[in-house]
Amino acid sequence: MDENQRIPGEKIASIEEYLPGENTFEDDDSIRATTIGEIKLDSSERLASVNTQTQITVPKIGDIIIGVVEANLPSMIAIMIKYVNGKKVVADLECICVTRHIRKKNIALAKDVVKVEIISHINGTIHASIDAPELGVLFTKCRKCFGTVVKMRDAVKCKDCGWIDDRKLSLDFGKSEFLTQN
Ligand SMILES: [Zn+2]
Asked: Ligand 1 center to residue 153 CA distance, Å?
């Protein structure tokens, strides 16, 4: 959460300086938030309010997502969103990525860390694409022994058992050391 975000009950201003605006309440000499959102101090109207429009970062079209694969289905993968444009997401948001047009046996496995781009919102479902070269798997493990894998052209090879497997790899595969700590 960034420093302008407030959670319910948290003080956002004092009553001597501001009037309680939207999504706030008065509590003695404090103005407190009634909802999660971004604090907005309007000094011309002396109004302190909380803007709930920005309370949850719902990714927009074109946003770059880093997430963890929840389910690996024959024609799509479901991804739990962890980062939107590099910013950590607190809410549980999922996106779907259609993969049936990609000629690979394993696009990504469950628990793989992937980078995808948001392409549409349809009926409340967030759709993403994994097609561009920079998109794809950032971190994965061996399907046979869960060992560490290294990149071999557009496939991965297990350092422990030698199993070679395909993935839709991102150009950034192996560069995101912090992700391997999860
Ligand atoms: Zn292995």
From this structure: 17
